[in-house]
Amino acid sequence: MTAHAPAAPHQRPSMPEELLTVPQVMARLQLGRSAVYDLLRTRQLASITLGRARRIPTHALTDFIRTRLDQEAA
């Protein structure tokens, strides 16, 4: 019998992570392509690369928005 390591707190095993394309993020943020790529390049918005495709996890977009709201409130 093998022991399973406990899941990390940030993982949600019961719900798969949705990955968004750059055009989907553009639509949700109502920003242009270069603005979204600038956010990715400066690592303000986290992403992963699958082959040549760039994907943004939904939690990364939510975290980005929450961080910006917190900055505006400060």
Keywords summarizing the entry:
3-stranded antiparallel beta sheet, HTH_17, 14% strand, single chain, Helix-turn-helix domain-containing protein, 3 strands, alpha+beta, 74 residues
The unreliable regions are none
Q: In percent terms, what proportion of residues is strand? A: 5-15%
The major β-sheet equals:
3 strands, antiparallel
**Cα shape:** globular
Encode the helix/strand succession as letters. EHHEEH
Spatial strand sequence of the major β-sheet: 1-3-2
**Count of DSSP H/I helices:** 3
Rounded radius of gyration (Å): 15 Å
Q: Into how many domains do the coordinates divide?
A: 1
Provide the structure class.
alpha+beta
Topology:
Elements: E1 19-20, H1 22-29, H2 33-41, E2 48-50, E3 53-57, H3 58-73
Antiparallel strand pairs: 1-3, 2-3
Helix pairs in contact: 1-2
What does this molecule look like?
It holds the Pfam family HTH_17. This is Helix-turn-helix domain-containing protein. Residues 19-68 form the Helix-turn-helix domain. InterPro entries: HTH_17 (IPR041657). The chain has 74 residues and is α+β, with helices and mostly antiparallel strands. The protein has one domain (19-73). It is 45% helix and 14% strand. It has helices at residues 22-29, 33-41, 58-73; strands at 19-20, 48-50, 53-57. It has a 3-stranded antiparallel beta sheet with strand order 1-3-2. β2 and β3 (53-57) form a beta hairpin. α1 crosses α2. The N and C termini lie far apart (52 Å).
